[in-house]
């Protein structure tokens, strides 16, 4: 199986290819770590009060809120940790993407904020889609364990 990085066309300025190639994996790792860490910080307040969002999730049609609220808190907090360290990256990223797609619906439709209200959630959902499909890279716990889920 060929690596996506090696299958890339040459840079428009070939002299810069030597600059870009060493940073491919590093940039991808940085994006994964930052995205995971920010998800952790977003979920931190929820994990301190796991039932605190019960009313909000029920207002979106997720019943019972006492089930979905702790699941939301765990997905954001623990899922963010997993994504940041690169362990179970694909399933954790997929779960985070689902959470973000719900926030797209919440801001874009329920709160009627349109694209302006949903754009950050769309961007975050796209980032987590990338890692759900791609998985982690050599700089991850998954790689150190010799597996990719």
Structure write-up:
The chain has about 150 residues and is mainly alpha-helical. It has one domain (about 30-145). It is built from seven helices and no strands. The protein has helices at about 15-20, 25-50, 55-60, 65-85, 90-110, 115-135, 140-145. The chain starts with 13 loop residues before the first helix and ends in a 5-residue tail after the last helix.
Draw up the topology in text.
Blueprint lengths: L13 H7 L3 H25 L5 H6 L5 H21 L3 H22 L3 H21 L6 H4 L5
Helix pairs in contact: 2-4, 4-5, 5-6
Number of strands: 0
Question: N-to-C SSE series?
Answer: HHHHHHH
Q: Major sheet, described briefly?
A: none
Structural class: mainly alpha
Termini, distance in Å? 16 Å
Please give the oligomerization state of what you see. single chain
Can you tell me the overall shape? globular
Give the low-confidence spans: none
| Strand portion | under 5%
Helix content: over 70%
Number of spatially distinct domains? 1
Task: Determine the number of helices (DSSP H or I, runs of at least 4 residues).
Answer: 7
Rg over C-alpha atoms, rounded to the nearest angstrom: 18 Å
Keywords:
149 residues, 0% strand, mainly alpha, single chain, 7 helices
Summarize the structure.
By secondary structure, the chain is mainly alpha-helical. 71% of the residues lie in helices and 0% in strands.
